[in-house]
Amino acid sequence: MRGRVRWMRALALAPLLGLWSGCSSPHPSAAVGGSSNTSQGGAASAAAGASTGAATATAGAGGHGLDLSLSQPGAGNAGTSSVYTTPDAGQLCQAPQLVADGCMPGLDDEPCNGLDDDCDGTVDENCPCKAGDVQPCFLGPPGRRGVGACVDGTQLCRRGGEFAAHWGECTDGIRPSPETCDGLDNDCNGCIDDLEDCKAEWKCPGPGDPRTPDGLPLAPYPLRGHDFYEGAAKTWSWTIQGGPCDALTATPSFTLEGADSETATFTPKLSGDYTVTLTVTPEVGPPFKCSWIVHIEGPGLRIELCYPESTTYDLDLYVKQPGKKTPWFTGTAQFSSALDQCCWANCEANLRPGDLMPAQTVTRADWGYATSPLSLCENDLQGAAWQTLGYCASPRLDIDNNLVEATGVPENINVDAPRENETFRVMVANFTGADAHPLVNVYCDGRRVATIGAAPDGLTNFSGTPGSAGIGPLWRVADITTHVTGGVTSCTVDVLHPPGSTTGFDVTVDDARY
Ligand SMILES: [Ca+2]
Ligand SMILES: [Ca+2]
Ligand SMILES: [Ca+2]
Ligand SMILES: [Ca+2]
After folding, report:
1. Which of 136, 274, 282, 501 yields a CA-CA distance of 20 to 30 A from 333?
2. Helix and strand totals (H; E) in the chain
3. Model confidence, pTM
4. Domain boundary residue, one of 148, 179, 195
5. How much distance in Å is there from the Cα of 144 to the middle of ligand 2?
6. How many angstroms separate the alpha carbon of residue 104 from the centre of ligand 2?
7. What is the 191 CA–ligand 3 centroid distance (Å)?
8. What angle do CA 436, 450, 416 make, to 5 degrees?
9. How many CB atoms lie within 10 A of CB 222?
10. Which stretches of the chain drop beneath a pLDDT of 70?
11. pLDDT tens, position by position, 22-70
12. What's the CA-to-centroid distance between 174 and ligand 2, angstroms?
């Protein structure tokens, strides 16, 4: 039985817990586009100098080097004939069609729009936000957003301790970087490979490139080096960078096979953005590198739980049926589950009535949604069981990380097609009872809209009675309200605080209340 298995497992692991030293590592932020901005102005200068003077880089405001200001229209008209030799460059490589940077230095309060309007290196400083919310952002000259290779990153609203909540660093995405001869507009000035005598052998993919389609969580994603470089190579090397859970856990949220081969396969376990980097050493010439973002998009509402203790502790993710506000448990321990919620007992491919104590009849969580195509779940750890059923349920728990069925993996609950104005309460139960540090991501139509519990705004004292002996520690994370318009789902996330409080996490021990 689940309860017994879990309890024995916890006992067996107890001596190890004191030795566990934590595996968190700094989030590898902004590996793409370069964490150092200082070379960009120089590169733009070089490009301009090598060309006709159609584009003139000016010194970055404040010396941060992000400013890739171009001269105003007219300044470069003397050299309207293109010297760029790539056929893709075309007319855009001439002033005034080159993209202006749009910087407005010296703003008192920059607009709250996900842009670094004043080009001081921070996005939406002084803008209000709700702790835990995630917004798209672009750390580069505002005029370069969405141009060429440039892709938005994300930033998380931080609680801020004694200060008001504020937007944190804008990470990931792809920022302007020095132009290289690779078939891409790296500096996002509207002009591909604006370098003298550039004949690209490399064809790095940019946003929306058909060679880099969106993927699905848990589905193998093929990578083929010759899609990007047709020549002979001495070595191929692939690396993947994931999202917030990969900054937290020792076990990557993806697998990668063939990392040193021309063809590789990566399989993401989570939604969100994965940055893929291919490094090739050609038979002749220096190594070369392409980076791009693969968007992994589960439809509808997707809630992910990850935690650094996931190989030694058992935490469980719960989502309450919209409209229900009943206690989370009906008895005196965590395997006495109420069943008006999606959880390990009633939401996986395999139903588990025998693991409840006392045993009770279990029917699949059914909130009136249509079933979903098999492609959404046939690759998860219970994929064979879903294939036998012939459909994916919605809601659906991909897998219960209970250290027996699975270990070291995130837990995900999916509602593939939520309806307009439904509110879902999310709860994390600590079955092991020892102090744990969970993080919850919320995605709507594949876009991350909230991250709750990430350092430095993490949970403290999420510990207490094990779930086998009592209700134990429960974290009521957030209420998520879905908005559905024209087949597109967006979400409002309200992070929950203790009753009567406007800050802190709503954590209790031995209290089953909604
Ligand atoms: Ca702004
Ligand atoms: Ca700014
Ligand atoms: Ca360019
Ligand atoms: Ca280029």
Report:
1. 501
2. 4, 20
3. 0.79
4. 195
5. 15
6. 9
7. 4
8. 100
9. 11
10. 1-97
11. 223 333 333 333 333 222 333 333 333 333 333 323 222 232 333 333 3
12. 17
